[in-house]
């Protein structure tokens, strides 16, 4: 089986709830309806049927729930999203073997409650977070507890980039141009979030922590030499900050903490990029994913290119099967397919 671990969805009841409760009627999310297979399951299943033995682990599409309103509203929307995804998985287990929970990251207590509820009561296989929480790092005191909880639950965190056009490329400007915020900004956001997680000691503090970095790990695999050389001398360029105790506490070389992330195959168009990703993370830490139903042909283009990229890698049959399915089944506790 080809088990797609990063496939987005926006159940129609959730979208209808947004339109009722959001002050702007869900205007930000209304653009999602330009991709009808996010909510039209008949259309989605026809798309999936174009590929043999193919299934999806589903997670909510953006924008982040915490960007839609205050804590109470975000908690309400997260519960709605998770209830709807759980129902889809229950009805279509052959299509959707699992779902990834959405969280109200602007509610310190609510995000922990919803993560536990989604996993323990609804059967979520993990949680999705974005690379920052309304401008704050994921490792800030209000949200860092999630890492310990997910390590204790022994399930992964899906890390999705988030940046908008309002994030200017230059301090003298008010917005980003040429869609740089998306083309280059998203991989950068992923890399920055990975650095905060890797260098703040979370992998040492929580040995069972598992994080899936979207879109082949941002820019980290391609900058391996720079990542290695700069952070081997962490603090040398910023004498005003004392990182000596942090360095002494590290049990690994800084670059090796980045290798502890899992990476998906989203963006695997052409072999050089995915080969670089494979070389950095290794076949045990790579997971097949496509970002469907986004991309050409309502997602079919991305699915086709990701399959071709994995099939084109110089791997043993067992390693290739691990990337397509085995790694995900182990990580998500889905068991071995009969």
Describe the structure.
The chain has helices at 12-21, 27-30, 41-48, 71-91, 108-121, 145-153, 180-183, 185-199, 202-205, 214-217, 224-232, 244-249, 254-258, 271-281, 300-311, 317-332; strands at residues 2-9, 54-60, 98-100, 127-130, 157-160, 211-213, 262-264, 286-287. By secondary structure, the protein is α/β, with parallel strands linked by helices. It has one domain (2-227, 254-332): Alpha-Beta Barrel (TIM Barrel). Strand 2, helix 4 and strand 3 (98-100) form a beta-alpha-beta unit. Helix 1 (12-21) runs antiparallel to helix 4 (71-91), helix 4 (71-91) packs parallel to helix 5 and helix 5 packs parallel to helix 6 (145-153).
List keywords for this structure.
single chain, 338 residues, alpha/beta, TIM Barrel, five-stranded parallel sheet, three-stranded parallel sheet, 8 strands, globular
Instruction: Pick out the low-confidence regions.
Output: none
Query: Cα distance, first to last residue?
Result: 11 Å
| Mean pLDDT rating | 94
- The CATH level-2 architecture is identified as Alpha-Beta Barrel
- Describe the main β-sheet briefly: 5 strands, parallel
Count helical runs: 16
Q: Kindly report the name of the CATH homologous superfamily.
A: Metal-dependent hydrolases
Q: Report the count of strand segments.
A: 8
* Helix-strand category: alpha/beta
How much strand content do the residues show? 5-15%
What helical percentage do the residues reach?
A: 40-55%
């Amino acid at each position: 089986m080809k088990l797609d671990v990063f496939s987005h969805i926006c159940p129609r009841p959730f979208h209808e709830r947004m339109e009722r409760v959001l002050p702007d009627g869900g205007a930000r999310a209304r653009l999602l309806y330009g991709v009808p297979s996010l909510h039209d399951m008949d259309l989605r299943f026809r798309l999936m049927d174009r590929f043999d033995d193919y299934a999806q682990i589903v997670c909510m599409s953006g924008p982040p729930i915490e960007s839609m309103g205050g804590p109470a509203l975000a908690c309400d929307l997260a519960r709605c999203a998770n209830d709807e995804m759980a129902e889809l998985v229950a009805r279509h287990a052959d299509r959707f073997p699992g779902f990834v929970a959405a969280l109200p990251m602007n509610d310190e207590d609510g995000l922990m409650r919803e993560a536990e509820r989604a996993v323990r009561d609804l059967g979520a296989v993990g949680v999705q977070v974005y690379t920052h929480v309304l401008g704050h790092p994921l490792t800030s005191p209000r949200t860092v507890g999630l890492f310990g909880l997910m390590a204790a639950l022994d399930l992964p965190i899906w890390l999705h980039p988030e940046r908008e056009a309002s994030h200017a490329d230059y301090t003298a400007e008010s917005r980003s141009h040429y869609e740089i915020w998306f083309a280059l900004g998203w991989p950068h956001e992923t890399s920055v979030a990975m650095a905060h997680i890797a260098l703040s000691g979370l992998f040492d503090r929580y040995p069972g922590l598992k994080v899936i970095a979207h879109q082949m790990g941002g820019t980290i695999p391609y900058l391996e030499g720079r990542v290695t050389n700069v952070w081997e001398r962490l603090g040398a360029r910023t004498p005003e900050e004392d990182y000596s105790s942090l360095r002494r506490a590290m049990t690994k070389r800084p670059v090796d903490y980045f290798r502890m992330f899992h990476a998906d195959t989203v963006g695997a168009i052409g072999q050089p990029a995915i080969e670089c990703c494979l070389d950095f993370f290794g076949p045990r830490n790579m997971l097949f994913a496509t970002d469907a139903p986004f991309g050409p042909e309502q997602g079919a283009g991305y699915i086709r290119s990701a399959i071709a990229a994995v099939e084109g890698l110089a791997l043993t049959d067992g390693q290739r099967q691990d990337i397509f399915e085995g790694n995900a089944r182990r990580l998500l506790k889905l068991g071995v397919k009969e």
